[in-house]
Amino acid sequence: MLNKILETKKEEISRLVLPEEGQFTKRSFYDALKNPNRHIGLIAEVKKASPSKGLIKENFHPVEIALAYEKGGADCLSVLTDVQYFQGANDYLTAVKNAVNIPILRKDFIIDELQIEEARRIGADAILLIGEALEAERLKELYDDAHSKNLDVLVEVHDIETLERVLKVFTPKLLGVNNRNLKTFETNIHQLKEIAQLIPKDTLLVGESGIYTKEDLDTVKSYGASAVLVGESLMRKENQTEAIKELYGEIVNG
Ligand SMILES: O=C(O)c1ccccc1NCC(=O)[C@H](O)[C@H](O)COP(=O)(O)O
């Protein structure tokens, strides 16, 4: 699936026309996770659908969801902008940016500088770079390009081989380990356990995907994560503010 998505991205980039420059207040995604509201930081994801789960939330109002996440104490947001596979949109990110006061990650499959400039113009504070999608040297080029545009970068890996490839070239400030294999969709809450040993001590570690319960949250934290990225389990609930409190064990819903 990842390779199919990347082929689609190449085609989208060939047709990409940059939007007009927007006027946005830049917020530090990294600083928000460095100083989280709770014992482990939360990147709450605004995601309507996905390849592995199909339609997740039919009654999808991204600004309402984002405000509810913010009210629930999310440190940052992740907003899907991929249209074809996640039913996201650039306009969702811009609308959310104009509504909330916390930093926003553009969740998309970034493989070109044009997409980074586009992210900046639609109001993103950070972008995602997926290790399995890029050669390490190219990943570093895009990483540097994003920072030159005052955007933070969440570098994401799934397995040790990818992490080692990346670390041979550079050390990311912010690194996510995706519990989901983006090629097979297999998800393992313990994915971080082995990989965490190899993470440089000054790198802020984020556990991503397949986090449904406080137990999952505690498991990922026990492996060394300073933050988590959570989408489906929050999106499927009726009330995203309550969903966050339930995830952290602050309320117990039947
Ligand atoms: O989620 C998918 O089906 C998927 C398929 C192919 C590439 C990426 C995919 N998901 C992106 C993500 O990593 C998740 O949206 C994010 O980590 C949140 O995961 P979850 O909490 O399990 O929704």
Automatic annotation (TrEMBL):
<keyword id="KW-0822">Tryptophan biosynthesis</keyword>
<keyword id="KW-0028">Amino-acid biosynthesis</keyword>
<dbReference type="InterPro" id="IPR011060">
    <property type="entry name" value="RibuloseP-bd_barrel"/>
</dbReference>
<comment type="similarity">
    <text>Belongs to the TrpC family.</text>
</comment>
<keyword id="KW-0210">Decarboxylase</keyword>
<dbReference type="Pfam" id="PF00218">
    <property type="entry name" value="IGPS"/>
</dbReference>
<comment type="pathway">
    <text>Amino-acid biosynthesis; L-tryptophan biosynthesis; L-tryptophan from chorismate: step 4/5.</text>
</comment>
<feature type="domain" description="Indole-3-glycerol phosphate synthase">
    <location>
        <begin position="5"/>
        <end position="247"/>
    </location>
</feature>
<dbReference type="GO" id="GO:0004425">
    <property type="term" value="F:indole-3-glycerol-phosphate synthase activity"/>
</dbReference>
<keyword id="KW-0057">Aromatic amino acid biosynthesis</keyword>
<keyword id="KW-0456">Lyase</keyword>
<dbReference type="InterPro" id="IPR001468">
    <property type="entry name" value="Indole-3-GlycerolPSynthase_CS"/>
</dbReference>
<dbReference type="InterPro" id="IPR013798">
    <property type="entry name" value="Indole-3-glycerol_P_synth_dom"/>
</dbReference>
<dbReference type="InterPro" id="IPR045186">
    <property type="entry name" value="Indole-3-glycerol_P_synth"/>
</dbReference>
<dbReference type="InterPro" id="IPR013785">
    <property type="entry name" value="Aldolase_TIM"/>
</dbReference>
<protein>
    <recommendedName>
        <fullName>Indole-3-glycerol phosphate synthase</fullName>
        <ecNumber>4.1.1.48</ecNumber>
    </recommendedName>
</protein>
